[in-house]
Structures are given as C-alpha cells and as structure tokens.
Design a protein that fits this description.
- By secondary structure, the chain is α/β, with parallel strands linked by helices.
- Helix content is about 40%, strand content about 20%.
- It folds into two domains: about 5-180, Rossmann fold (3-Layer(aba) Sandwich), CATH 3.40.50.2000; about 200-275, Glycogen Phosphorylase B (Rossmann fold, 3-Layer(aba) Sandwich).
- It is globular.
C-alpha cells in the first residue's frame, strides 16, 4: 500500500512582494516536487508577483478594506472560508506567514492538524511603530498583538527568522522557548546563479563606478533614509560612489524627494525603465 502524502497548507494574505512572501514562495517551490508532500497555497486575495500557476492557488477572493466595518466583515469571511478550506482538505500541517494569517491559522485550529507560525519581525517593536497612524490600524495592532499573547501557545511550532526575533517573541508573549525554532530566510541558489548570467544592458553605466547596494521593502521599518544621509557624507570624499536601493514600497516617493533635498540625483527603476540621471 502506497503511503499517503503529507498535506501542507500554506496561508498568506497575498503574494504582492515582500520578504515574507518571498520566503513563502521559496519554501513552496522547494517542497512541491517532493513526492511525499501535497502542498496547498491559500491566499486572502489573489495578488501575484511570482510565477505560480493558477491551479496551484486557493484564493479566498477577499479584498482588503481601509475602514473598521470592512475589516470586521473581511475577518468574519476569512474565518469562515479558512475553516471550510481546512475541513475540506484535512491538512496535516498549516503554516502561516504574517500576523493576519497567523491569527486566523490559530483561531481555526479545530481539527487534528498542527499549526506553525512564521515570525518575520521583532513583533513587540513592530506593533508599536507600524500601526500607529489611524484608529483602524491601532485596532488591528491591538487585535494581532493580543492574539499572539493569548493564542500563540496553541501553536505547535513557531519559526523565527533570527535569534533576536526569537528572543523578543518568547519574552513579549510568554511563549515556551522550546516551541520556538530559528530558521534563517532561505535563498534559491539556482535562481540566483541564473540571474547572474543576465546582461545588465541599460544598467551597465551604474556599475562602472564603486556601488553600494541595499535591498528591501521601501518602508519605515527598513530606514533607508539613514543610508541616504550617510551616502551624502560619503560622496563628499568619494565622488564617484553610487548608491542603488532595490525595492518597492510606500516610501518610494519620500526617498526620491529626500535624495533631491540632499542634492543627490535619484536613480529610479520602475517597470523596466531606468532614469537617465542618477547618483
């Protein structure tokens, strides 16, 4: 008799880009070809920036909402649909990425399946800094923060991407450290080697000089504005030095404006179009 496959359910809001999304995709692609695994990829909303076939995705088709009533409605819909998905698939393990998915994964833990949370931020600091500009975001911060405090103990395993994050999570949410494991973000070496062979084409002029490169989402957490100011000081001694910031995010316009205020010509990439003037 052939052994049954282990059914894994990956849960994430969307795949619109970002560190946690990239980790999810890398793990998914790394495991899906193993014969002893059957993997299901569940999204709250079908937003994709990665090459994944439609038939490999289970989408709840629930768009995000900026207002409180919309958020409550979305939560109830997601709770119902995820509960239904888990009942139909009967997974062995459910792995969630990001706090909203973690929350729903925990409160839909009714059956025999195991729950694994993946933590990608220093959560105590994250909730203080990044959900503080509107009432609806403050409410979301309170709900997710509370869910970790009261529900994280229900998880069978909590994966943190660094030792610092693991230490903060155990202390902030009073979780037994034996439930927490550190696994650094995976990288796809084959994919990187393939990209290394690509021509730079119109990007070639940038790399005729010494270059500093930083990659990451253009968001408050990453603090790229510090690097711009440091780069300004370095340029005074190293005139031919260049800085390339790779990423997308809500602070793109701010960073471009700041570079102009610092009298730096901004290097801007957008949809395969490269600006002609850059520092």
């Amino acid at each position: 008799m052939k052994n049954e496959k282990i059914k894994l359910l990956f849960i994430i809001p969307n795949l619109a880009g970002g560190g946690a999304e990239r980790v999810c995709v890398n793990i998914y692609k790394g495991l899906k070809n193993y014969e002893n695994y059957k993997i299901y990829l569940v999204l709250f909303q079908k937003i994709l920036k990665y090459e994944i076939a439609d038939e490999e995705i289970i989408s709840m088709d629930i768009k995000g909402s900026p207002n409180i009533l919309g958020k409550i409605k979305n939560f109830l819909l997601r709770f119902y649909r995820l509960s239904k998905i888990k009942k139909e698939i009967n997974p062995d393990v459910c792995i969630s990425f990001l706090e909203s998915a973690d929350f729903l994964n925990l409160i839909t833990k009714f059956g025999r399946h195991k729950v694994i949370l993946t933590i990608h931020n220093t959560m105590s600091e994250y909730f203080r800094q990044f959900y503080d500009d509107s009432f609806s975001k403050k409410l979301a911060s309170f709900v997710y923060n509370s869910s970790y405090k009261f529900l994280a103990k229900k998880a069978n395993l909590i994966i943190c991407v660094s030792h610092g994050i693991a230490k903060d999570f155990a202390k902030s949410y009073n979780v037994d450290s034996s439930k927490i494991k550190v696994i650094h973000n995976p990288i796809n070496l084959n994919e990187i080697e393939k990209f290394c062979e690509e021509n730079l084409n119109e990007y070639e002029p940038v790399f005729k000089h010494p270059v500093l490169i930083t990659t990451g989402r253009l968001t408050k957490q990453k603090g790229q504005w510090y690097l711009l100011r440091i780069f300004k000081a370095l340029k005074e001694k190293h005139k031919d030095l260049k800085l390339v910031i790779l990423g997308e995010g809500e602070l793109k316009d701010y960073l471009v404006k700041l570079s102009q205020e610092l009298e730096l010509k901004a290097f801007v990439w957008d949809r395969d179009k490269l600006s002609e003037r850059f520092d």
